[in-house]
Amino acid sequence: MNNNNKTVVAQQVIEDICEWAIMHGVAFRQADNTARHCPFSIAPMTIEREVYDHLRRVVPVLTKLITNVSEDDDFLQASLADMAKADPFFGRLMSLHYQIHGDVNHRHNPARQPLLLMRTDFMDDRQYGAKVIEFNGIAAGMAPFGQRATELHHFIQHQWPEIYQACLEDTSAIPADNQGLAQLAHAITTAAHSIKADFNDQGAAVFLMVVQKNEDNVYDQHLLEAALQQQGLRTVRRTFEQLSAQLSTGAGQRLMLEGVGAVDVVYLRAGYQYCDYCAPELNEAVCCYTLSQMRVFIEQHHVALNATIGQQLATSKTMQMLLTMMPAQDYIRWGLTLAEAELVKSVLAEMKPITAATIDWFNTQATKTEWVLKNQGEGGGHCVFGNDISDTLAKLTVAEYDAWALMQRLYPHEREVPTIAIRDAKMTVVEDLVSEIGLFSAYFNGKPVTELGGYAGYLIRSKPASENEGGIHSGKGILDSLVLID
Asked: Does domain 351-409 have CATH number 3.30.1490.50?
């Protein structure tokens, strides 16, 4: 330990912490089936309790809104029609939605029971306060890592208090409780038992996780499965390709899995990109069609499902933009009170559709550093910043405009104390760390289904302010946690 906050962490300490992380599943699987720890910070980020409490209040209301929008078939199909024409992947999703639900003149009522497991990502902007970056309604993972990061910081605080304290902005700050893993497991178990009760089944409820082939982010998934197993659920993992040959229909629209039996909950950790539906070994020109039909098949069965096609459409960037542009009173149609609608409005950052007029305005009048250009993609690599925005806009055809949106760029507070990041068992000091705050929530059949009123814990990902991509998995991000100050 040196003075002036030039903290040096001994290699022995780093290795102890990294081994704790791997031992507790905070890791990625390598190609050779070894594990490497997730990158993480030595000490948490600080946030004002008032800001945190505000986000805790707003997230269940946002989830209620998205739940009800996702079940409003007429609105989804009408409002996202242009985007679906501009984005081929969402065009496929919209065609699946028509298959499942019919059109405005001929509606179908699919048997699936919607289970919305959502992560809403925020940044606490220096000027405007905490604002939504995006909604994640499909494959909204890493709640287990979020809870484990909180536990890891508790471990460091207990074992090496001097190092922990030296990296805190405010030594009086109190850790924010994080039950992300426990609450999502509670929500899924509740939904599973509800489905099972509908059939008066005996034996363990079955949870099916739909995964990507050769996935490396498996430990986060296995942590959730282990928590569900402790609740008495049986858990199984399958790819869409495997499901295409293994699913069938039982009595009462029961979803049946070959070699397992009846399925109660289906949770998609795949399906948000074209390659999840691609299986060249099927030797079919339309393998994407074949595998995406698994989504349609599942929705036709009496099973708790996350994510439904409706949920995926309702958490798209275009829907976020449309909701942002609406007056608050328009939300009342989806069951919100005016006070709840105003609460939602308080965290939505300005967004603009891409039109010829918007492009002209951006190129001639806008302050380019105040905006980010987004397409509909999930995960890292789908945002354009600064002067690159004009270059990208110039390359777009008119037919592609509706797949993109401009959003107010958020500039979160940089951490006032240099922070130690650990990656590949080596420390680096980050002078300008900023954080993204993801809050989890869970609703089943339109009702909150956690012990915390729909809220279900958090995930903090931090990165140097100079880096645009902050994903733990695909960017320069590190796992982090929260401490609160009054």
From this structure: yes
